[in-house]
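User: Hey, my collaborator sent me this sequence without any context and asked if I could get a structure. I don't really work with proteins. Can you help?
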Amino acid sequence: MPPGPQGELAAEWAGRLWRAVEAGDEYVALKTVRDALDAGLEPESVLLDVIGAVQHRVGVEWAADRMSVAAEHAATAISDRAVAALPPQENPEPRGRVTVACVDGEWHALPARLLTEVLRLRGWQVDYLGAQVPSSHLVSPLHRTGSETVALSSSLPTRLPTAHAAITACQAAGAPVMVGGAAFGPGGRYARVLGAQAWAPDARAAADRLAEGIPLPAGGRPAGELPHLRDQEYTMVKRSSRELVRATFSGLEKRCPAMADYSEAQRERTAEDLAHIVDFLGAALYVDDVGLFTGFLGWTSDILAARGVPPASLLPGLDLLDEQLRDFPRTRNLLARGREAVEERC
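Assistant: No problem. I've predicted the 3D structure and written it out in structure-token form, which is a compact way to encode the shape of the chain:
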């Protein structure tokens, strides 16, 4: 949020936009962002401190179980329309060319869209590729457009393996890579692990970092392999993920008699939760970071508590996974630390 009068003005208009989004009123939402511009709020602030701030609040409300998935999707659609409805601004002095995309499997495209519009406001020519871009489809436009830098966005740590593939592919094509989004961890810790040239916590910081210039990979070589993956634990867990989920679900049915009374929706939710646990276990193995897995389980515990489900319900599933993966020491350490994180919240 910008300091001074602009910050106060942005907060006021963010409140108005939130009320429109909460009500699902797209007409009022679009009028609100136009009125904010007419009131003297700078376009970049409208994008980040009004639309972006409201979208952040949408995520908070969903996590607290005060907004349904359908309402969250509707709110995101309104935010996307609000970005598109902003009138074009006079282009400043051109700076260069940037490709902005979400990594393969990443559907949360609004952060990348906001970055795109901020960069355009600052004079960059942007090739915006949108959500879920496979690495091969990302590299082809680089050769065609001569883009100087690639900015990759990802919100989910489970996409880190595909992010690594995208980073490596872009660097092999001669383009330095800047990454951003919650997937890359506090302070961008996983950006460094995966060999990205730069990381930015938000769109403003990303635009500032691009203005400084991002050098090509040292020696023109892409990021190398991750030595800890040589133990093959990530590969084995990834390949057997579906069977792990099925076996764990079956084991839970035997250990938890109450599951016999679950509705179909409850059974589906349980299977989804197990799949998420296995996915995050794999991501933590990939970057060799215990905190990724324990952080996810802590967050999940809080989400369950907000929905009236005791966090201890996670423990039997972790125990069953541990029994199936007893030949994988790095994986079992993650599961043990994850169990401790859940028990702290019980």
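In plain terms: The two ends are 36 Å apart (CA to CA). You can pass these tokens on to your collaborator as they are.
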